[in-house]
Amino acid sequence: AQQFGMTEALEILGIKTLNQGTSTGSNWFSSNEKIDSFSPVDGKLVASVTTTTPQDYEKVMQAASEAFKTFRLMPAPKRGEIVRQFGEKLRKYKEPLGKLVSYEMGKSYQEGLGEVQEMIDICDFAVGLSRQLHGLTMHSERPGHRMYEQYHPLGIVGIISAFNFPVAVWSWNTALAWICGDVCVWKPSEKTPLCGVACQNIIAEVLKENNLPEGISCLINGDYKVGEMMTHDKRVPLVSATGSTRMGKIVAQACAARLGNSLLELGGNNAIIVTPDADIKMTVIGAVFGAVGTAGQRCTSTRRLIIHESIYEKVKEALVSAYGQLRIGNPLDQNNHVGPLIDTHAVEMYNKALEKVVAEGGNILVKGGVLQGEGYESGCYVKPAIAEAQNHFEIVQHETFAPVLYLLKYSGDVHEAIAIQNGVAQGLSSAIMTNNLREAEAFLSHAGSDCGIANVNIGTSGAEIGGAFGGEKETGGGRESGSDAWRVYMRRQTNTINYTTNLPLAQGIKFDL
Ligand code: UN1
């Protein structure tokens, strides 16, 4: 049951009608320009945020640079304690924050809560990791020498996040960066700036309670121009960016031009291979959640089903019947499965994709359309659609951030299906539904799926935080979240120590004076 309404949730999170948009922690700065955040749920103005000016950005960078000097000296497990307290706060604020995510972004309340849960989980993960930032020791080739490696804090980490996971992706980056001794500057999507303000208010509480300096967690707001302040800034050794492939290429080039690092999480074009042995019931649940969850606006959303011809009709019928059950409407009403798209521009893209698939020779199986009338005033609610298509269609090759699912047929063995699955520019998530060991292992083998995530008997979306998250090819190659993704947030140093009174040179070189 929901304890309180949206007005109260906004109040708990410290959201005002007009919010200052630049922050170094407890210090906030405002400018004359503002971004209005409209909810795709009801089309209403939620609140506004002021944008970051170049002068404000300078203040942020100065605070961050200063903070780094002390934060890097704090023992990692003590930094872990700060992240632990942040996780505790997130538990406390889970409901209002989940609600804001749902209202500002449009995903279902359950998914909003799920997103906050991902934040809590990554905090727990980072706390443990704060005692495990291990390097290796190696044997020196010289007598009386010791060699080992250390991981040191990197500096200021810039984070550019997307609207679809307006809070979780920030926390994947910050929770790790903080335990690594870095300080963070975050530019949330200009489509979900209030989620940014709410998160900054929560972490500011923690930093204040621990008497930590300004600058450990900073917030900047605005469009790509504000993002460019960071990508071009030599003081930012790492920019972690989530968004479109187009955006990622710009970020990567700007960072590379100054030999800075970028960590990229870009588009996906995720497929589930449905083999003759697939469990149809599981396939349908996995595929439908993957295709319509978050209204098809996850990087991991299922966009393509590659179905064997022997069960094609059966799967098709089951999907059509499942789509018939979907309830579309206010995502805060827990009876609904599908909420709105982020804005009317996204609706346009959705409409174009459906037109294009028909123009290219596809066959619409479940008709789409924009919903109108009571409850749909925002103009952002669309019907999830299914089209029979072919992998080479331009529109199938393209990531449309909307609930459009393409059915593709294969007739040969699993290798044919894998070739279709890999036959796109993106490489984020992939899945196979099979009870056949040979097919499953072929899919996971060196010659199998070329994606960063490859699942067996699970859909493409909903990855756990414990694994490294990211993908290959046009997805950008970055890895965030679990496993050893933390290494990107640190700089590695190799140390050789001589504890003798001789100075032998490596490679046996003789150099006598
Ligand atoms: C994204 O869409 O940017 O695996 C992240 C998932 C979520 C994260 C998606 N845990 O679907």
UniProtKB/TrEMBL annotation:
InterPro entries: Ald_DH/histidinol_DH, Ald_DH_C, Ald_DH_CS_GLU, Ald_DH_N, Aldehyde_DH_dom, ALDH7A1-like. The keyword Ribonucleoprotein does not apply. Residues 29-494 form the Aldehyde dehydrogenase domain. Its EC number is 1.2.1.3. PROSITE patterns: ALDEHYDE_DEHYDR_GLU. GO terms for molecular function: aldehyde dehydrogenase (NAD+) activity. The active site is at E265. Transmembrane segments: none annotated. Keywords: NAD, Oxidoreductase. Signal peptide: none annotated. It is an enzyme of class 1 (oxidoreductase). PANTHER family: ALPHA-AMINOADIPIC SEMIALDEHYDE DEHYDROGENASE. Homotetramer. Belongs to the aldehyde dehydrogenase family. This is aldehyde dehydrogenase (NAD(+)). It comes from Flavobacterium croceum DSM 17960.
